[in-house]
């Protein structure tokens, strides 16, 4: 798209409960339209209950908003930053209304989701369309979205730093135990699993078909990023792409392998298969250390490692890393006529991604909006897309 004179930035995210009393109302929002009773929601609320009913995501978005404001101010870019969520306060429709009431007419949306699939890209655009209609702002408030930034250096370089540090920590732990060899260490790049049909639709368009590794832009983007990280860190160390947070009906196929199943497989055993004694878990699919990282990786995956006797380190997400925040502001600059930069950096051959994806890209096959499980919520008959943080 041509640069425009935007007058505000919308930081759009998923949202999460901020206390025990919020958990069920939040899960009602996530599963709205599916008729799931509160009793069933309570059965799957244990991820939140274990953390006092508080998801880290809202606090992290407050920190990210403040960091973006500071970086914009440091560069002399006069764009106020607003924050809106899909599933909890502050909600996107109310935030758009507030932006309009404050006098803004052209808004650039920045999301906490880096990769291409329905739930992490197209659904944001659809949600904005619905919100503009609900608030009566359609035709009065213009909202555009920045490109998917999966391979922007600002997103990738924090993972390079974290993976370097993680490998050093695992090697030190193994040396202290009984000595180690690089062949006994594996790097696992973890991301949210999605239904395979959704994955196959990611990045595809009937008008401009494009082939991707693994049959999906979602898979190809993660693989390309993982290769870029390992090329910069340790080209000779083995690595795998694994998935987490599967939810929904068990008969629907999702991307595999699950990280816990894969840990069991690579740990080895009596059949003489290679034994992995140390792993570095890189949450490559996520922007911040939200509930899916805190539960599915820091709790479940690390417990699996402990059970198997595997030394493990989980790498931080970008969060408010200086390079990540600077990279997000660079993405804003790409689109603003007052501060345009022509360069669109990218670390893989897949990028830079489109400002506006092609018609039919990342199609939603389920008609109604899919459930997105921020904590790997498992609900019979419900299916989840990728969490965007």
TrEMBL record:
It is found in: Cytoplasm. Keywords: Cytoplasm, Heme biosynthesis, Iron, Lyase, Metal-binding, Porphyrin biosynthesis. Transmembrane segments: none annotated. It is an enzyme of class 4 (lyase). GO terms for molecular function: lyase activity. Its EC number is 4.99.1.9. It comes from the Bacteria. Signal peptide: none annotated. Fe(2+) binds at residues 192, 292. It catalyses: Fe-coproporphyrin III + 2 H(+) = coproporphyrin III + Fe(2+). The keyword Metal-binding applies. Pathway: Porphyrin-containing compound metabolism; protoheme biosynthesis. InterPro entries: Ferrochelatase (IPR001015), Ferrochelatase_C (IPR033644), Ferrochelatase_N (IPR033659). The keyword Iron applies. Fe-coproporphyrin III binds at residues 55, 124. Involved in coproporphyrin-dependent heme b biosynthesis. Catalyzes the insertion of ferrous iron into coproporphyrin III to form Fe-coproporphyrin III. Belongs to the ferrochelatase family. This is Coproporphyrin III ferrochelatase. The gene is cpfC.
């Amino acid at each position: 798209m041509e640069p425009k004179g935007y007058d505000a930035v919308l930081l759009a995210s998923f949202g999460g409960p901020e206390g025990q009393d919020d958990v069920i109302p939040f899960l009602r929002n996530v599963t709205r339209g599916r008729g799931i009773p509160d009793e069933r929601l309570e059965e799957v609320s244990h991820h939140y209950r274990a953390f006092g009913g508080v998801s880290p995501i809202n606090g992290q978005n407050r920190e990210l908003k403040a960091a973006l404001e500071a970086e914009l101010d440091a560069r002399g870019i006069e764009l106020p930053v607003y924050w809106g969520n899909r599933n909890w306060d502050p909600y996107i429709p109310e935030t758009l209304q507030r932006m309009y009431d404050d006098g803004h007419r052209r808004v650039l949306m920045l999301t906490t989701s880096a990769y291409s699939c329905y739930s992490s890209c197209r659904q944001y655009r659809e949600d904005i369309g619905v919100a503009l209609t609900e608030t009566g702002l359609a035709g009065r408030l213009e909202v555009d979205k920045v490109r998917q930034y999966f391979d922007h250096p600002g997103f990738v370089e924090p993972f390079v730093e974290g993976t370097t540090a993680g490998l050093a920590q695992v090697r030190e732990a193994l040396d202290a135990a009984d000595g180690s060899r690089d062949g006994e260490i594996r790097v696992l790049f973890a991301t949210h699993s999605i239904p395979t049909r959704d994955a196959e639709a990611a990045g595809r368009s009937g008008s401009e078909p494009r082939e991707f590794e693994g049959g999906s832009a979602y898979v190809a983007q993660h693989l390309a990023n993982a290769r870029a990280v390992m090329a910069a860190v340790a080209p000779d160390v083995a690595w795998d792409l694994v998935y987490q947070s599967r939810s929904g009906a068990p008969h629907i196929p999702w991307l595999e392998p699950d990280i816990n199943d894969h840990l069991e497989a690579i740990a080895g055993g009596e059949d003489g298969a290679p034994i992995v004694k140390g792993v570095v878990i890189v949450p490559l699919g996520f922007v911040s250390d939200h509930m899916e990282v805190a539960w599915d990786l820091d709790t479940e995956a690390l417990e699996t490692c402990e059970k198997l006797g595997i030394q493990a380190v989980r790498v931080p997400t970008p969060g408010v890393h200086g390079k990540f925040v600077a990279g997000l502001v660079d993405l804003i600059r790409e689109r603003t006529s007052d501060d345009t930069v022509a360069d669109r950096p990218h670390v893989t051959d897949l990028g830079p991604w489109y400002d506006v994806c092609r018609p039919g890209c990342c199609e939603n096959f389920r008609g109604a909006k899919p459930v997105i499980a921020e904590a790997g919520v498992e609900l019979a008959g419900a299916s989840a897309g990728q969490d965007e943080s």
